[in-house]
Write a structure and sequence with these properties.
This protein is α+β, with helices and mostly antiparallel strands and 341 residues long. 33% of the residues lie in helices and 23% in strands. The strands form 3 sheets. It has a 7-stranded mixed sheet. A 7-stranded mixed sheet has the order 2-3-4-5-6-7-8. A two-stranded antiparallel sheet has the order 15-16. Strand 11 and strand 12 form a beta hairpin. The chain is globular and about 65 Å long.
């Protein structure tokens, strides 16, 4: 475990702000999951407020925003919304901010277009690709029968209709916010083109889900790209953040602001490499992704959490194959098993 220094003894209540750096404020909104909150950020400018991430599309979250905008944020207009990535707790209210407040969404192109495509590809009945994906990973008939009840793929349920257009941000771009330069640092693996913001003057990194203090980012293979190798992408993209100063104040999307970026990066990388070593020992005999869950997760898994765990197992297994340490055996039913070389 990394030895991190946390910067605050309290967390903001909904509809409240806590200053975390000169002109930078911390907000926190609820989530209806086991991970029960998301951190959002407001940066004060001479002529308005820049927001970073929106929260999920739920009535109470919209209500908290209304209170903030009528209260602590009321002295200046909203200027723009940065969205770090496409997941509903970050992107969920981008369209609402555009419709309600007229502000533009700033985000990377892959995140915007993939998020928008997931909203537009909603369905009433479970598409056959979803049970096929989980059957191939080793899910039994009982698990497959539960899929329609678990909400996998119901992305649009948590996202306000997205804006038609957006303002693209790109890796390495410098953007003036609040009289200071903020640099876009793009990571990948957790999502395709995750945009973080770093301010050299303040030594502040708004890290979204790319770097978290207490948990690892969810790195999963999804039905939308079943042959993906997201853990490779994520581990490689973490190297970018090693170039930031060790005393950088990290403002994550979940958990509390902290200092100790380099130690945290090392701990995250070491943790996944240890998982890969354990997994390699476990597949000395052919195993499906579902067979591998007890090796990677030492807790009971059920419901949607089990689906996400299968995606994470696949991410680790795909990286072992990419590294030439394992191969895939596929049977006549299309079920895939991984075995050590």
């Amino acid at each position: 475990m990394a030895q991190l220094a946390y910067l605050h003894d309290t967390v903001p209540s909904p509809a409240a702000l806590i200053p975390v750096a000169d002109g930078v404020f911390w907000l926190r909104m609820p989530l209806p999951f086991s991970l029960d909150h998301i951190n959002l950020w407001a940066i004060e400018e001479d002529d308005g407020w820049t927001l970073v991430d929106s929260g999920i599309n739920l009535p109470d979250v919209r209500g908290y925003w209304e209170q903030l905008i009528a209260g602590p944020l009321s002295q200046k207009p909203l200027k723009r919304l940065f969205v770090t990535h496409l997941h509903p707790d970050h992107f969920g209210l981008a369209g609402w901010f555009k419709a309600r407040w007229g502000i533009d969404t700033w985000m990377t192109a892959l995140e915007f277009y993939e998020g928008k495509s997931l909203v537009l590809s909603g369905y009433d009945e479970l598409p056959p690709e979803i049970p096929w994906f989980f059957r191939r990973a080793g899910m039994d008939d009982e698990g497959l029968a539960e899929l329609p009840k678990l909400g996998y793929g119901h992305f649009a349920d948590s996202v306000y209709p997205p804006p038609i257009g957006f303002r693209r941000i790109v890796d390495g771009e410098d953007i003036m916010i609040g009289g200071r330069q903020w640099r876009v640092v793009v990571g990948s693996g957790h999502s395709p083109e995750h945009g973080c913001l770093y301010c050299p003057d303040l030594r502040v990194l708004i890290s979204g889900d790319q770097v978290l203090p207490r948990i690892s980012s969810n790195i999963s293979v999804h039905v939308t790209e079943p042959e993906a190798n997201p853990l490779k992408d994520w581990l490689e993209s973490l190297a970018k953040f090693k170039f930031l100063p060790e005393d950088t104040r990290v403002l994550p999307a979940h958990g509390d602001p902290f200092v100790g970026l380099h130690d945290r990066l090392d701990a995250l990388i070491t943790g996944h490499e240890n998982q890969l070593r354990r997994l390699l020992r476990a597949i000395e005999q052919p195993r499906t992704a579902v067979d591998c869950l007890p090796t990677l997760f030492h807790r009971e898994l059920n419901g949607f959490n089990r689906l996400m765990a299968i995606g994470e197992a696949l991410a680790h297994l795909h990286l072992l194959v990419h590294r030439g340490l394992a191969r895939i055996e596929e049977d006549a039913l299309g079920i895939r098993r991984f075995v050590k070389l």
